[in-house]
Structures are given as C-alpha cells and as structure tokens.
C-alpha cells in the first residue's frame, strides 16, 4: 500500500488487477484501486475536485478531471477518513496513475492541493 501526506491529509492507495476483456476487437486490462483519504490536520476539510493522469506501457495517456470522487464531495473533520473504490482500463498489461485532489480548509476557506502518490497498475502475469 502506498501512502503520502500533504498538508495533514494522508492518502493511501491499494490496487488490484480485475481481468481482461475484448471490446471493439481490442484487448483491455481492467484495474481497480481503493483510496483512503484521512484528515490528520486540526481543521475540517472538503474534497471538491480531482485530476488523474493515467498512462499505459504503450505510451497512451489519459487525463481525467471532475468534481468530487464517485459523485461525492466528502467533508472530513479532524481524525475522519473517507474511502472509495474505482477503476480504469488500460490497453496494456501495466501502467501507472498519478493525480491530485483540490480541497478547501473549511476553517480558513483556503483552497489547497493534495497529491496522490504515483501508483503502478500491473497484471500479475506481466511481471518478471
């Protein structure tokens, strides 16, 4: 499990390989990831938006932006955490993701960025 703390917000990431399937005559590799966002600061915060950069080993890059995570904009009081699961498709058996969350400190109303550590996506059979 990867972990990183930015401005008192701890991000933990765990990945899994979900399998392969054909779509439009092309092989796709499905990956899942679980993210836990833990507020270790002394102030309440809210996650407003996110941005992901998804790359596969064939040099395909996709940037995904949007509000909240899985349709939610969680508010985290000090000591609270929020976990969610999501996934992505790659055209190859391994790649990586990195990104960040745009958050707001509800005490000071200041916006700040929390970085998600770059994490690998790899099918078990693709590793040497």
UniProtKB/TrEMBL annotation:
It holds the Pfam family DUF525. Residues 3-128 form the ApaG domain. NCBIfam families: PRK05461.1 (NF003967). This is Co2+/Mg2+ efflux protein ApaG.
């Amino acid at each position: 499990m990867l972990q990183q703390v930015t401005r008192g917000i701890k991000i933990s990431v765990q990945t899994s390989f979900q399998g392969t399937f054909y779509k439009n005559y092309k092989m796709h590799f499905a990956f899942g990831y679980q993210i836990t966002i833990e507020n270790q600061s002394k102030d309440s915060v809210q996650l407003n938006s996110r941005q992901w950069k998804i790359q596969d080993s064939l040099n395909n890059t996709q940037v995904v932006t949007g509000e909240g995570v899985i349709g939610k904009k969680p508010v985290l009081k000090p000591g609270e955490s929020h976990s969610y699961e999501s996934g992505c498709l790659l055209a190859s058996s391994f790649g990586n993701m990195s990104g960040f969350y745009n958050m707001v400190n509800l005490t000071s109303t200041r916006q700040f960025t929390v970085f998600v550590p770059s994490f690998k996506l790899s099918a078990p059979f693709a590793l040497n």
